[in-house]
Design a protein that fits this description.
3% helix; 1 helix; Trefoil (Acidic Fibroblast Growth Factor, subunit A); mainly beta; Immunoglobulin-like; single chain
Length: 155
C-alpha cells in the first residue's frame, strides 16, 4: 500500500481541468514559475488557482498530464516586469471591475491583497508595490470569471 506521501487527490475545478492535491500536506501540483517549456519542473505549492496549477487529463495508453493555457492568461500582461515601485496589468480588451489582485511570495504566503473598483472600463490598472521586498512573486488576478496567475519579479 502506498504511503500518504505518494497519494494525490484530483478535484475538478472547471470542466476538463483539475487541481491535483497532495494528501500529505494539502499543497497542489504546480509548474515551477508557470513555465510552458518542454521538460519544465513541477513542484508542490500553495493553491493560488492559476493556470500553472490547472491540469487537463488526456486519454492515452499511459498517464499523461498537460498544462492547458487559456486565452485570458495569454492576453494578460504585467508591465514593467521586473518592477520596482509599481506594476500595471494590461489586456487588449477592457477590464471589468471590481478586480481582485493577490500577490504571493516564493513561499506561497500572500503579501498583498487589493480590490480595485472603478466606474469606467479600462485596459490597464496600476498596483502599488510600497513595502514589498525584492524577489519573485506570483500575481493572482480575478475579474468576472477570469482567474489568471502570472510571475512578477520585483527589484
Amino acid at each position: 500500500m502506498a504511503s500518504i506521501f505518494q497519494r494525490w487527490g484530483f478535484e475538478e475545478i472547471e470542466p476538463g481541468y483539475y487541481k491535483i492535491s497532495s494528501k500529505n500536506g494539502g499543497k497542489v501540483l504546480d509548474v515551477a514559475q508557470c513555465s510552458t517549456a518542454d521538460g519544465a519542473n513541477v513542484q508542490q505549492f500553495q493553491w493560488v488557482g492559476g493556470d500553472c496549477q490547472r491540469w487537463g487529463l488526456n486519454s492515452t495508453n499511459s498517464l499523461s498530464l498537460n498544462v492547458n493555457k487559456n486565452n485570458a492568461e495569454e492576453q494578460l500582461t504585467i508591465i514593467p516586469n521586473p518592477a520596482s515601485t509599481y506594476f500595471e496589468i494590461a489586456t487588449p480588451t477592457k477590464l471589468e471591475f471590481p478586480v481582485q489582485i493577490e500577490l504571493f511570495n516564493s513561499l506561497g504566503n500572500r503579501v498583498k491583497s487589493e480590490v480595485l473598483k472603478d466606474n469606467s472600463l479600462s485596459k490597464r490598472m496600476r498596483v502599488n508595490l510600497d513595502g514589498i521586498s525584492s524577489g519573485v512573486y506570483m500575481v493572482r488576478f480575478f475579474s468576472r470569471g477570469m482567474n489568471v496567475s502570472k510571475k512578477l519579479i520585483i527589484r
